Amino acid sequence: MGNRLGIMGMVFGKIIVETPKYEVIKSTTDYEIRHYPPSVIAEITYDPTQMKGQDKDGGFSILANYIGVLGKPQNTTTQKIDMTSPVITKAEKIDMTSPVITKKPEKIDMTSPVITQDHASDEGKVTMQFILPEKYKKAEEAPKPVDERVVIKEEGGRKYGVVKFSGIATNEVVSQKVEKMKKDLERDGVKIVGEYVLARYNPPWTLPPFRTNEIMIPVE
């Protein structure tokens, strides 16, 4: 019964997993400026056109295997890694797939976001990231991946301009949100220092009106 209620909660947009902590530095009617502390991430860089079979979802399954979402965790420990949220994509190359969870030998609970980013200097390649739970303070504290394509690394503190919205994050909607926020940030004298990322907090079966999405633009 509890599991059923949990699934129904996710259908209606309830976020039941760990989300990254942050400090709101500035809040306006148009956006927030947030500071996120350092984190540990699991990352894979790949060419989406070369993905086949179970990897056709853009490397998501590879990272999901590392934390144990799809079965036995593909790492060298038995430590559970909690799932977090949101899933993050950069430059909207890859559609969000369902929850990131943890696996065995070390079961890693699902976390979010999952991050993907394009490589301007390496055309066609994308980087996808899972942010690991807050308990992992250093890369060496996280379970070691079995798959050599998965890299565990530390990411320093960063600051983002953020806009939240509901519904389906289509390319058209995301593009409109990004352009408006860029104009709003520039209007207010906020310096943009990188490309946007799209954060999605819900699995694909969540009803569109109840989905939580965020556009995040790195700022100085």
From TrEMBL:
<dbReference type="InterPro" id="IPR011256">
    <property type="entry name" value="Reg_factor_effector_dom_sf"/>
</dbReference>
<dbReference type="Pfam" id="PF04832">
    <property type="entry name" value="SOUL"/>
</dbReference>
<dbReference type="InterPro" id="IPR006917">
    <property type="entry name" value="SOUL_heme-bd"/>
</dbReference>
<protein>
    <submittedName>
        <fullName>Heme-binding-like protein, chloroplastic</fullName>
    </submittedName>
</protein>
<comment type="similarity">
    <text>Belongs to the HEBP family.</text>
</comment>
